[in-house]
Amino acid sequence: MREQTYVVLLALSYAALASLHLVLLMTLRVRRAAKAAGIVAMSALYIATFYWTQGLLGWSAAIAVPDRFKLIAARVVEPDLLHKRSGAIHIWVEAMDDRNIPSGVPRAFLLPYSPQLASKVSEAEDEIKKGHPQGGTANIFNSAFGNATPEGANVRANLGSASAGGDPSGGGMLAPSAVGGQSSVVNLIPLPPPLLPPKDAP
């Protein structure tokens, strides 16, 4: 399902809820002018919701990363003690199938900050700049690529939380630690070659 489809479904869901409220409004004994104003306001609001949600599509998702992925780029936001921000790590990845073939649909994810993960992400970025593609898995104990993980390539992050929407401050009811689903363990390794099917015997 494409991102735009999610936005349309979200807007339709809001419109359905707003329609229910409008039906209830029609049964109330209030002035017609007030009812008309309520209908116009609610209609305008769920149309505006469709456009407002467009701005959400560019934010890093504070949800679990794919089981295996190709790392495209990353951005490390260092902690800011002055403004009480715990820091965050944003990664842009492509999910990979069981043959190590990228999906072709990149997505941005938000990970909790830790010095160890920040260091490994920076190392992975340097390797990418050198022409050495990097991949990863969602679990340090999961060798999802079907081959041994190089020694020293593992990275584990189990610290803190970062809030969704690119805001590294963390905390609150909407923090990933409260909502759940954000990856806290990530394994970065050199990108393995695709597993091609065997050629037919002559």
Q: What would your notes on this structure say?
A:
- About 20% of the residues have low confidence.
- A five-stranded antiparallel sheet has the order 3-2-1-4-5.
- Helix content is 32%, strand content 19%.
- The chain has two domains: 54 residues; 123 residues, no CATH class.
- It has four helices and five strands, in the order ααβββαβαβ.
- The chain is α+β, with helices and mostly antiparallel strands.
- Strand 2 and strand 3 form a beta hairpin.
- It is elongated.
Basic shape: elongated
Beta-strand level of the residues, as a percent range?
Answer: 15-25%
**Low-confidence spans: pLDDT under 50, at least 5 residues?**
140-144, 146-180
Straight-line distance between termini:
41 Å
Characterize the main sheet: 5 strands, antiparallel
- What class, by secondary structure content? alpha+beta
> How many helical stretches?
4
| Number of discrete domains | 2
- Sheet with most strands: strand arrangement: 3-2-1-4-5
Number of strands: 5
Q: Helix content range of the residues, please?
A: 25-40%
Rounded to the nearest angstrom, the radius of gyration is 23 Å
Mean pLDDT: 74
Secondary-structure element pattern, one letter each = HHEEEHEHE
